[in-house]
Design a protein that fits this description.
The structure holds two protein chains of two kinds. By secondary structure, chain A is of the alpha/beta class. Chain A has a single domain, classed as 3-Layer(aba) Sandwich (Rossmann fold), CATH 3.40.50.300. Chain A is built from nine helices and twelve strands. In chain A, strand 9 (about 210) and strand 10 (about 220) form a beta hairpin. Chain B has helices at about 1-25, 30-40, 45-80, 90-105, 110-135, 140-165, 170-180, 190-200, 205-210, 215-220, 225-245, 255-265, 270-295, 300-320. Chain B is mostly helical. The chains are: A alpha/beta, B mainly alpha.
Chain lengths: ~260, ~325
């Protein structure tokens, strides 16, 4: 079990005032959703929480210790990050790509063993891309690549998941599968935080929400207290119609009004 | 481990065969049985002197230089995440050439030329990295661009130096610029460096595989990115400086060898780096053998052979890749 704490955290978005500092904890079993308009700093927040960017002020703690005092390898054994953007350097197969998730767990002289391969194969099967294992990543579709990205983090087996728009490029069925996977990870005692653009996925799957406003303001708390139509309309600058379907609120943008 | 040992075994056998060929042919050929007698510690005086004092040091030097250049090229390509990177593109050989030519222009002898070339290569390394570093954020494309511009600057300085050189010193300089293994005296420093660097980078291999996927991804998977990038850059610079110091400026080995191996063996750096050492060495041994024998007893600069082989090979690979 691991937990991630932000203390008086101000992320460094160039050219923006500090706004409200974040003090919140991502605890085992919780599923956090981060909502906000484009450019508000959702990705920057996740990268700051993972220690890949320095905050402007404040501190991030992993299991009580400041991130800055931990080595990258120690962090990578506890915390996994699903990136939104992907770089293809040199050609690699799907299986090789999933296997690099084992990197933090292997010593420099160690080759990947049968157990590592088994974990990678299981992750590929879980994300429904095992039939592509021998294909080159560059030949995959956007949605297949997204599932491979998640399979790589699943192979890494972190106790804290930070996922940057994990449902990007996915069809409806695989969106649901991925959200169920992340919720399942939380139910198994791991902590999850994800950035989302889809309010309805957030309403259905997240139990905590963090709303980031363009002016640097922020509010967070249990999902049911955050899903207030007026707050969400201010968040996106968009009129919304609300209904309830299948026990969860559904938000639909109202056409022609803003 | 089996998928590593088979290709490396084949490359090792090819390297040994190339070395054997290289020490037996030349202006005077040595028959296989005479060669065996010499290597076993006996044989007649003439082939003994020819093989042990002239050809073996030169062939081993060629092997070491080829290996150094290919490994340096493979490292630079991972560092810059750019398949077109090689140490020469980054201005290293330009700096080394200016150092060597300055020593020759001053009428200095062998050791000073080598030392001056080494100093020039390292100075160029620091210049490029310092400038690309700038105010704190260097990116691969910025490093590459800085290297290309610095290399162009060195090129102008080289032309200027050649223009003011007395005619009787020009041939030596031109041979150095085109790469020439007849300067190589003892093969042991470059061979030792090749071995040490191979042993050092093999445990870094998996980290390099991760780094090839981008610095953020690598950091998220537990790689200390900046220290690793420094290690690669310094290692590649030292390898290149040693190679250039031993044999002058030899192009295309660092670019072409890693590419050919990647096409055949994939992109696992744990396999590619030792394979580069073996295949780069083999290629340069063969090129040097051609350089010594094509118009024997005259010799061609080996850099001309590698470029003549390298340019069409590279263009073919580039054409085929898209």
């Amino acid at each position: 079990m691991s937990r991630l704490d932000a203390r008086e955290l101000v992320i460094d978005v160039p050219g923006r005032a500090d706004g409200r500092a974040l003090t919140l904890s991502v605890e085992p079993g919780q599923v956090w959703g981060v909502l906000g308009p484009n450019g508000v700093g959702k990705t920057t927040l996740l990268h700051t929480l993972a220690g890949l960017r320095a905050p402007r002020r404040g501190q991030v703690r992993l299991d009580g210790r400041p991130l800055a005092t931990l080595g990258r390898r120690q962090i990578a054994r506890r915390l996994g990050l699903v990136f939104q953007e992907r770089h293809d350097g040199f050609p690699a197969t799907v299986r090789e790509t999933a296997l690099i998730g084992r990197h933090p767990w292997l010593s420099p002289w160690q080759m990947e063993g049968g157990e590592d391969l088994r974990l990678a194969e299981a992750a590929l099967a879980r994300l429904d891309v095992d039939h592509l294992a021998d294909r080159l990543v560059s030949t995959l579709s956007g949605g297949e690549r997204q599932r491979l990205t998640i399979a790589t983090v699943l192979t890494q087996a972190p106790r804290i998941w930070l996922a940057d728009e994990p449902t990007n490029h996915l069809d409806l069925h695989h969106q649901t599968e991925v959200m169920a996977l992340l919720a399942g990870e939380a139910a198994a005692g791991r902590a999850v935080m994800m950035c989302l653009h889809d309010l309805n996925l957030a309403a259905r799957w997240c139990d905590r929400l963090l709303l980031l406003y363009s002016d640097g303001e922020a509010c967070w708390g249990p999902a049911e207290t955050m899903l207030v139509p007026a707050a969400l309309e201010r968040l996106y600058g968009q009129r919304l119609a609300t209904a309830e379907v299948d026990g969860a609120p559904v938000f639909v943008p109202v056409r022609g009004e803003s | 481990m089996r998928q590593l040992s088979l290709p490396l075994g084949i490359l090792l056998a090819a390297a040994l065969a190339a070395l054997a060929l290289s020490v037996s042919v030349g202006s005077v050929s040595v028959a296989p049985d005479a060669l065996w007698a010499v290597l076993a510690g006996g044989g007649e005086v003439l082939p003994r002197t020819l093989v042990l004092e002239l050809r073996v040091p030169r062939s081993l030097s060629a092997f070491a230089v080829g290996g150094l250049l290919a490994v340096a090229g493979a490292l630079m390509q991972v560092l810059l995440r750019n398949p077109l990177a090689d140490p020469y593109v980054l201005g290293l050989s330009g700096g080394a050439s200016v150092g060597a030519l300055a020593a020759m222009l001053g009428g200095m002898g062998g050791v000073v030329i080598s030392g001056s070339a080494f100093g020039g290569a390292l100075a160029s390394t620091l210049l490029v990295f310092g400038l690309a570093h700038g105010t704190g954020s260097w990116t691969p494309s910025r490093l590459l661009l800085t290297g290309v511009v610095v290399a162009a600057g060195w090129g102008a300085v080289i032309t200027l130096m050649l223009a003011v050189t007395p005619a009787d010193r020009l041939p030596g300089m031109l041979y150095w610029l085109m790469g020439d293994l007849s300067y190589a005296r003892t093969p042991w420093p470059p061979l030792a460096m090749l071995l040490v660097v191979c042993l050092l980078v093999i445990p870094l291999g998996r980290s390099l595989n991760v780094l090839a996927r981008g610095p953020l991804q690598a950091a998220a998977l537990g790689v200390a990115v900046r220290p690793l990038e420094w290690v690669i850059y310094i290692a590649a610079s030292l390898l290149t400086a040693m190679a250039v110091t031993t044999a002058g400026s030899i192009g295309f080995v660092g670019l072409v060898v890693p590419h050919m191996l990647r096409l055949v063996l994939g992109n696992d750096q744990r396999l590619i780096l030792p394979a580069c050492a073996l295949a780069g060495g083999t290629l340069l041994v063969l090129a040097d053998t051609l350089a010594r024998t094509l118009i024997a007893p005259e010799q061609l600069p080996v850099g001309v052979i590698t470029a003549l082989l390298g340019v069409p090979t590279f263009l073919y690979l580039l054409y085929r890749s898209r």
